[in-house]
Design a protein that fits this description.
Layout (H helix, E strand, L loop, with lengths): L2 E5 L2 E4 L4 E8 L7 E7 L6 E6 L5 E3 L7 E6 L4 E6 L8 E8 L13 E2 L3 E6 L1
Parallel strand pairs: 2-11
Antiparallel strand pairs: 1-3, 3-8, 4-5, 4-9, 5-6, 7-8, 9-10, 9-11
Length: about 120
């Protein structure tokens, strides 16, 4: 089984930056798609960014130009670099992984999830 552990969440002021990391354990990490979702209490998880096995990246429109997803397969780690943060970015951010190598925007299509890390952006 795959386990995902996020880190890097915290509180920042609007316009600030924050970087999240997710360390994955699993034999087939190098060929899995990885992604980030975020969730506000009471709402469904929404797709934020994903990176496929070929390093192609996908983003939610509202984070384009502000967030960057990357991965280091040698370290079994996926990153989410966030800049120019806005209050509406406040959420619990979850790392996700899929057995297939393609990115999927729907949460139910992902196979593994981290516990989440809180990101709070103040005005």
């Amino acid at each position: 089984q795959v386990q995902l552990v996020e880190s890097g969440g915290g509180a920042v002021q609007a316009g600030g930056s924050l970087s999240l990391s997710c360390v994955a354990s699993g034999r087939y990490f190098n060929i899995r798609a990885m992604g980030w979702f975020r969730q506000v209490s009471g709402n469904q998880r929404e797709f934020v960014a994903g990176i496929n096995s070929g390093l192609g990246t996908y983003y939610k429109d509202s984070v384009l130009g502000r967030f960057t997803i990357s991965r280091d397969n040698a370290k079994n780690t996926v990153y989410l670099q966030m800049s120019n943060l806005k209050p509406e970015d406040t959420a619990v951010y979850h790392c996700a992984a899929r057995n297939p190598g393609s990115v999927e925007q729907f949460a139910h299509a992902w196979d593994y999830w981290g516990q989440g890390t809180q990101v709070t952006v103040s005005s």
